[in-house]
Write a structure and sequence with these properties.
The chain is an alpha/beta fold. The chain is built from ten helices and eight strands. Helices cover 39% and strands 17% of the residues. The chain binds SN-glycerol-1-phosphate (1GP).
Length: 241
């Protein structure tokens, strides 16, 4: 059953905020997964994103299969490349990097994904991915060879997100980048949210309960956190159910 997107919409209509834990197959070691998942299961997290900028072939499939043995939470691929697609997950964010001008990440990789998605049960969720400057160069920037939108260019960011919605995307993801020095500023989240009718995801550099709440109160429907949990698994304790 392809229910990930409809569940996101239902949660929003019930006034519930989402928390997605991002697990990078390149960084998560198999021996640490059991403890990590125990903590995750006791936390408020309601989605698991799996992906990274640079991931070995098959590492995603192996990790997703292992994660499934610990949880029933939906597993959503957040792929940096076509090689990360696996049928074992529930859904995939079909990301188009609309803040950049690299055709490979706007449409190129998507074309190559089609043959892999044919006959697959993955729920495909078209997502406009908007990279915002955070104070340092991030992996996304290096890998995609695109520049983030400067954080002071608020109108550009708002218009980019809105253009994604008008193109028919079902989610907008405002990304400061993994391990960002500064998360997406509150006012940017707020201005983007005011323009959008589709759900808004915010991620990158969120390391505290306060930053999480700030993103929520300014309009994020789902917040994505990866690095803070990787660095210190006890952060889950602050976000218990
Ligand atoms: C990165 O938005 C995600 O793509 C999460 O970022 O690792 O900084 O939490 P962090």
């Amino acid at each position: 059953m392809k229910t990930v997107y409809s569940n996101i919409l239902n949660s929003i209509s019930e006034g519930k905020k989402g928390l997605a834990v991002l697990i990078d197959p390149d960084k998560m070691k198999s021996e640490g997964l059991s403890d990590f998942m125990k903590k995750l299961n006791k936390s408020k997290a309601n989605l698991i994103f799996v992906g990274g900028s640079i991931v070995d072939d098959h590492a995603t499939e192996i990790l997703v299969t292992e994660i499934k043995t610990y949880t029933n939470l939906p597993i959503v691929l957040f792929p940096g490349d076509v090689t990360q697609l696996t049928n074992r997950a529930d859904a995939v964010l079909f990301l188009s990097l609309i803040s950049g001008n690299n055709p490979e990440y706007l449409i190129g990789k998507h074309i190559r994904a089609v043959s892999k998605l044919k006959g697959s049960n993955l729920e495909v969720i078209p997502t406009g991915y908007v990279l915002i400057e955070n104070g340092k160069e991030t992996a996304v920037e290096k890998v995609t060879k695109t520049k983030p939108i400067p954080r002071l260019n608020v109108q550009d960011i708002v218009d980019t997100a809105k253009a994604g919605e008008l193109l028919g995307m079902k989610l907008i993801y405002l990304e400061a980048g993994s391990g960002a020095l500064h998360p997406v500023p509150a006012e940017i989240i707020s201005f983007v949210k005011q323009e959008l009718k589709i759900p808004l995801i915010v991620g990158g550099g969120i390391r505290s309960q306060h930053q999480l709440e700030t993103a929520y109160t300014n309009g994020a429907d789902i917040v994505v956190i990866g690095t803070a949990f990787e660095d210190d698994v006890s952060f889950f304790d602050e976000l218990k159910k």
